[in-house]
Amino acid sequence: MKVDVAIVGGGPAGLGAAMALRKAGIERVVVIEREPEAGGVPRHCGHPAFGMREFGRLMSGPSYARALVRRAVQAGVEILTRHSVVALQPEGRLMVANPAGSLEIVARRVVLATGAREMSRAARLVGGDRPLGVMNTGALQAYIYLQGLAPFRRPVIVGTELVSLSSIWTCMAHGIRPQAIVTGGDQAVARWPLGFFPHLLGIPVHYRAQVQAIGGVGRVESVAVVREGRGAVEIACDGVLLTGQFIPESSLARLSHIVVDRASGGPAVDQVHRCSDPVYFATGNLLRGIETAGWCHREGLALGKRVAEDLARDRPKGAQVSVSVSAPFKFSVPQRLAADVASAPDLQLRLTEPVSGTLVVESGGRALYRRPLRSRPERRILVPIQHLAGAREPITIRIE
Amino acid sequence: MPELAVKSNCYDVAIVGGGVVGCAVARRLTLDGARVVLIEKGADILSGASKANSALLHTGFDAPAGSLELQCMQAGYAEYLAIRAELNLPLLETGGMVIAWNEEQLSKLDGILAQAHGNGVGDAVLVDGAAVAAREPHLAPSLGAVLVPGEHVIDPWSAPLAYLTQAVVNGAEFLRSTEVIGGRFADDEWALDTSSGPLRARFVVNCAGLFGDRLEASLLGDAHFSIKPRKGQFLVFDKMAAKLMRTIILPVPTERTKGVVLARTAFGNVLVGPTAEEQDDRVHARTDEATLEILHDAAVAMIPELADVPVNAIYAGLRPASEQKHYRIRREDGRQFLTLGGIRSTGLTAALGLAQFAAGELRAMGLEISALAEPVVKPMPNISEMAPRDWQAENHGTIICHCELVTEREIAATFDTAVPPGDLGGLKRRTRACMGRCQGFYCSANVARLSEGRLDPPMAAAS
Ligand SMILES: Cc1cc2nc3c(=O)[nH]c(=O)nc-3n(C[C@H](O)[C@H](O)[C@H](O)COP(=O)(O)OP(=O)(O)OC[C@H]3O[C@@H](n4cnc5c(N)ncnc54)[C@H](O)[C@@H]3O)c2cc1C
Ligand SMILES: Cc1cc2nc3c(=O)[nH]c(=O)nc-3n(C[C@H](O)[C@H](O)[C@H](O)COP(=O)(O)OP(=O)(O)OC[C@H]3O[C@@H](n4cnc5c(N)ncnc54)[C@H](O)[C@@H]3O)c2cc1C
Predict the structure, then answer these.
(1) Residue A361 sits in the same domain as residue A301
(2) CA–CA separation, A45 vs B212, rounded Å?
(3) How far does residue B428's CA lie from ligand 2's centre (Å)?
(4) Does the keyword Oxidoreductase apply (chain B) (predicted)?
(5) pLDDT reported for residue B1
(6) Is the pLDDT of residue A382 over 90?
(7) What does the pLDDT look like over A268-327, one tens digit per residue?
(8) Is a pLDDT exceeding 80 seen at residue B8?
(9) Which residue has a Cα nearest atom 12 of ligand 2?
(10) Number of domains in chain B
(11) Residue A263 to chain B, least CA–CA distance (Å)
(12) Are A141 and A217 in a shared domain?
């Protein structure tokens, strides 16, 4: 199958890119989605806080996902569901498995929009036994909202990011009673009322604490939690919900010729979000881990426009300048700047620890941009890209 | 107690324990013509030591010369190669290298080579650091190695499942969730008490692994050995790691420990481990972060590029070690009882050889059987990366697990086999569902639906 643009992943970002491409007059735009339905993660977020910017009202995740799919179809986007991209190859060749067998899709441009997921127990190296009932919020929501199943009744929740609130919400709305919330920080990561929210519900919160071991032979029976300065506690429970710590679902890129950035975990991109192979672009949570659905959708829409322009142009040849960050910055997106780019989205940064200081962007010993910064991990930090334009030497970003 | 619904009122042989050894013995004795029952206390086979190992098919190059262990490993190795095609079992022909990272280790390579040759592993050779680097370009610089071409990687779960499946399709009985709690030998037969009711058999083979001593004590009144569980922790890297290495990287053993191995898996991953940690607990095989970090560092020291590869899985297994190094065999002719115990760290390789040995011992004890003329052969579905998987076939339908590319029909089919999964671990080992990089983030809810009413404990209840 030959197409103009193939989009891998039919979440808010991928659907956004597809719509924008069609609006810009691109003929054959195909979204390849491995699930039975497009819509991405919001399909199983059965709670509100979606759609305000896009549809002008508060929607639940599933209705938001359906509305996005409807818009995309109306715009003339072709959506192939139950189609899994299994390999990315040079020249825009995608190996795809579908229920009938397999096919090759060749695209003039490819947009990768495979999203992000919460880090697994194994990747976090959380020790102990391997009983049933250890999972992430994404999985819990799929159990509850897609299958009508409850994997546990009395879990311990680990983490206090925004998604941790989704998990508390989901539990409380379905007769699941969290036994405790465990977090490494000395306050909640999310800006939300989490500081008092769990207390209102009577759920104890252990700050500066860590799950040391999960216990249980068949099912989870307990977790051992070590608390800084206050010794260890054993909490009886029948599940462990590991929330947050999102990482890009970049395995396709990692298994291919495309360069992956060690810091962000997503494909390394320039300021228009082009990958190391110029035929490929990346958008949405795949770039960096978690953002809101609305943000990802807008990111996709903007990317779609740029890809449409790119189709009419030759491949970029100009010099590239690297962008790197030093601690406590976790990553920068993009990781490089291409010359001669007219418009591009803001540069995105994340922190690993709270800071209060001055954000400095430098190149060749010259400061390109400075501003005071007081922020915390998992908060969005942006640098308008025009400040970086014209830099010829590697760009470094640090806190002063 | 409930009456057991069994086909036969007296079996020729009751095998206690559905680890790799018990499964292999069940196959051998069934094919040799015995009426066999295999009794396993877990909800599935591989509930003990056999669920977590390094998955290496060893040549026996470093086994004690002249030992039963060496004999069984080499017989098991040969039989695995002979039957694997018809059972559709994978073989990743990697070879192994015992690597010298320093001068002290280098000085030991001659001795390791001599032992390999003495053990009949004639193709083992010494190679220098340059040859190691040529064979494994991503490996950190080394001083040299003993290359053992015959060390291979297999699927540690499909193999024992295939053995028990051959037994069951040829008439053996498999009793799961059934614990042998006692028994008496009288009038030429055993009356066994099990948690599912009484059962009779002429011979008993003790393949109870980590509980082999306990079973011996409960049936014979005394145990001739005692199990000292030795834990091994592992860490599994994502599939991007597979292109970084081919050969199994083995350490030069020290007095204290055999050291950690770096090896590919049949599923396209790379594993590092195991540790060797003594403990009293026979049930809990716990991982801990500090040790996993040491393993991770050890792997990265060997192949620096592994630093960029995500970790997919962590696990630990318990070796059924005893107070002595060798296999703990006890043959009680008068009571028609055989223990295959203390099968510490080579049981995956040796199982088929141990089964040949057991069949010989039982015959010598008076079991009269003649081999099946035309046994049914039931090949395993392929779940390894070495042959086409179901998702690559025409009309494979919906893919459920995206990381490991497991189809819905593979999951459905496994519940329809001679030895269906009894718990989630068993389902994962048979299909690879939930075994990949996301560890169930995307697919576990689907797997819970597809397995409803089939697993003990269930993955979920109605919400
Ligand atoms: C539990 C949870 C709760 C959340 N709650 C909120 C909230 O309340 N409000 C909010 O704004 N945001 C919320 N979010 C975040 C929001 O869901 C994401 O920001 C958004 O879904 C990201 O969109 P995306 O398109 O980048 O990725 P995704 O939505 O993850 O979409 C990626 C798509 O790619 C597909 N895909 C992946 N690999 C392949 C492949 N190889 N072949 C084919 N298809 C592939 C996937 O199936 C998926 O459909 C939540 C997220 C989670 C996990
Ligand atoms: C870390 C590690 C790495 C290893 N690496 C390798 C390797 O690379 N290559 C290799 O060849 N070998 C390896 N081994 C060794 C191999 O895994 C073991 O030798 C083998 O699993 C032992 O099997 P078993 O059948 O004797 O015991 P088990 O697997 O423990 O089986 C015994 C079974 O008996 C059941 N049982 C116990 N008591 C009763 C009762 N009373 N009634 C009913 N059922 C009962 C248990 O539930 C259990 O399922 C490794 C082992 C470990 C732990």
Answers:
(1) no
(2) 49
(3) 18
(4) yes
(5) 38
(6) yes
(7) 999 999 999 999 999 999 999 999 999 999 999 999 999 999 999 877 777 899 999 999
(8) no
(9) B346
(10) 3
(11) 10
(12) yes
Residues B351 and B398 in one domain: no
Q: Is the pLDDT of residue A187 over 90?
A: no
Q: Is residue A346 packed enough to be buried (19+ CB in 10 Å), middle (13-18) or exposed (0-12)?
A: middle
CATH number of the domain encompassing residue B292:
3.30.9.10
Q: Which residue of B has its CA nearest to A257?
A: B240
Strand, helix or coil for residue B430: helix
> In the structure, which protein residues have their CB atom closer than 6 angstroms to any atom of ligand 2?
B 16-22, 39-42, 47-50, 52-56, 58, 179-180, 207-211, 215, 232, 274, 317-320, 343-349
ipTM attached to this prediction: 0.95
Q: Degrees (nearest 5) of the Cα angle B86, B90, B94? A: 135
Say if B301 falls within a structural domain. Answer: yes
What spacing in Å lies between the alpha carbon of B17 and ligand 2's midpoint?
9
A108 and A7 together in one domain? yes
User: Are the C-beta atoms of A239 and A155 separated by less than 8 Å?
Assistant: yes
pLDDT in tens, B193-227: 999 999 999 999 999 999 999 999 999 999 999 99
CA distance B376 to B180: 29
Domain end, chosen from A315, A336, A367, is at: A315
Tokens linked to B305: 């590029």
Q: What is the mean pLDDT of chain A?
A: 94
Q: What stretches of B32-67 show up as alpha helix (H) in DSSP? A: none
Q: How far B380 CA sits from the closest chain A CA (Å)?
A: 21
Matching residue, tokens 């190094």: B325
The residue range of the domain holding B109 is: 92-153+228-319
Are residues B458 and B313 located together in one domain of the fold?
no
Q: Are residues B84 and B233 in the same domain?
A: no
Q: How many CB pairs below 8 A link A and B?
A: 147
For a mutational test of ligand 2's pocket, the pick from B177, B210, B354, i.e. the residue with the most ligand atoms closer than 8 A to its C-beta, is B210
Atom of ligand 2 nearest to the CA of B234: 1
The model's confidence at residue A196, banded by pLDDT at 50, 70 and 90, is low
Residue A372, Cβ density class (10 Å: 0-12 exposed, 13-18 middle, ≥19 buried): exposed
Which of A251, A250, A239 has its CA nearest to residue A215? A239
Q: Is residue B384 part of a domain?
A: no
Residues B379-397 have pLDDT tens digits of 999 999 999 999 999 999 9
- pLDDT for A57-85, tens place per residue? 999 999 999 999 999 999 999 999 999 99
Among chain B residues, CA nearest to A249: B438
Q: Give the pLDDT band of residue B2 (cuts 50, 70, 90).
A: very low
In a domain, B385, yes or no: no
> In this model, does residue B23 exceed pLDDT 70?
yes
Omega into A334 within 30° of 0, i.e. cis? yes
Say yes or no: B158 and B30 in one domain: yes
Domain that holds residue A370: 319-399
Distance between CA atoms of residues A140 and A126, nearest Å: 18
CB A275 within 8 A of CB A106: no
Q: What is the mean pLDDT of residues A11-18?
A: 98
Phi and psi at residue A96, to the nearest 5°: -130, 135
- Residue at token pair 């339908």: B397
Q: Do residues B200 and B263 both lie within one domain?
A: no
Domain with residue A101: its CATH number is 3.50.50.60
- The neighbour count for residue A207, using CB atoms within 10 Å, is 17
Return all residues near A264 (Cβ < 8 A) that are at least 6 apart.
Answer: A248, A287, A288, A289, A330, A331, A332, A333, A335
CA distance A381 to chain B (A): 25
- Is A313's Cβ below 8 Å from some Cβ in B? no
Reading the block at residue A249, the tokens are 């679902």
B137 and B284 co-located in one domain: yes
Is residue B209 a part of any domain in this protein? yes
Q: What is the pLDDT of residue A198?
A: 72
The CA B91 to ligand 2 mean position distance, Å, reads: 21
**Nearest protein CA to atom 18 of ligand 1, as residue:** A293
